[in-house]
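Changelog note: in this version the structure field was regenerated for every chain. One regenerated record is shown below for reference.
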Amino acid sequence: MKKIKTLTLLILLLTLAFPFSSYGERLGFEINANTSDVEGKIDVRIPHYETDLFAGVGGLYSEDNYFISNVNFFLRDEIFSPALTLGLGFKGVYGRAEIDDTDYDLASLNFALLGRYDFRRDNYQLPISVEAGFSAATKPLCFNDTERYIDFSCTVYGHIVNNAAVLVGGRYLDIRFDEGAGEVKTRDHAIFFGCKLFL
């Protein structure tokens, strides 16, 4: 079952890559994993007046019995220096989690923040960039069984060649579900490794 879900995730991401690539300037394709999770992401930069629009899709499958897919849109611009960029946007999340043999449907529309510092574009010119993202939604923007959704990630990229990078990062999830008589929650902390290709 794990192999089928992982293969389905990869096929979905590759299928979505083609329409994204026709509108964007640069397409990024990322895979990261650890001993229990596998995550795939596709993002594209779309030039838009004085700022840039970044759009992306992704999916996360965990042996801890949850699957989360997402679609996100950010407006991102340089702040203070060319090396530092900040973004604001929205992240739509949909998935499923199993807690104590009970299935819960996950859906939310999150407010999202994204920050990136690229050391290749400052005085140090190191082949490293750091990216952090945060998104959250509370009850008015949560649907199905979901009461609250929070995620945070921080990733360090090592740009070994111009169009590829190796990465290491950490991820935190806090999801709460309504069970009628009360509230159940799932939390997850993970360290992951992977690579990203730019096409």
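Spot check on this record: The chain is about 10% helix and 70% strand. The mean pLDDT is 84.
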